[in-house]
Model the fold of this input.
Amino acid sequence: MEKVRRILVYVCKDRAAPQRAQFLQSVTGHFSDGGDDEVEVSCSLEDNKFIVSAAADGQQLLLKRPSFCPIKHLSPTEAAAIPLDVRQRGVDVGVAILLQTANQRVLLTRRAKQLRIFPNIWVPPGGHVEPNETLLAAGLRELQEETGLQLKPDEASPEVLGLWESVFPLMLSRGRPQRHHVVVYMLLLSSLSHLQLQPSLKPSPAEVSGTVWVDRQLAAAVVSSVDGEEGDVCEDGLQSSISLLTFAAWRRFLQTEL
Done:
């Protein structure tokens, strides 16, 4: 049996058997009859396959992509120019952790400038899901690796907020697609305030160049920007392009009763 090295997205529609999503296939578009940029789906992690299917009773999550998603606008000529090894990658799965403190702050990290993908932007802690991990285990591992914060699974109170389809680079004007992900946004509730957690915050220099605790006011400023557009947000020295990966999840975060 071939060893599983990466967790990939599989799509399932009309009760057909799950099929591996292709790198040049928009997962959102697969379930959107009219080409909409958001759709309700169900998801599950089974046998190291992340299966996205049409929304079922009891589980309806929002899957969203930006209006300028490169895969959506890729022409046949542009698609043919993408190297074969990239086209054969499939769609990777990531998890992003919205760690909410008892005083209603959320942790953001600035990705190190030397990283190949999405360098120097502000995102929630997170990363790839490894073989035989649950989504929660992957999120807690990435949280610890990137920030030094350790949460036990029984302390996390996890809630999946939604899915975001992400392509790097963000736009075709910035180059041909190199990576394609579906990111699972997970809310974790801490019983501690951000001031109590701060002493335990030990960012990994290889991955993180800065951290900030974001309050609801700043989060509201981000999601009130034009949906799917980049913008600069400033607060206490925070001035950087906020990752588009956070927009849809933050909108849900603001709607959550605290």
Summary: The helical segments are 27-31, 70-73, 76-80, 84-87, 135-147, 194-197, 216-223, 247-255. The first helix runs from residue 27 to 31. Confidence is low (pLDDT under 50) at residues 226-248, 253-258. The chain is about 20% helix and 30% strand.
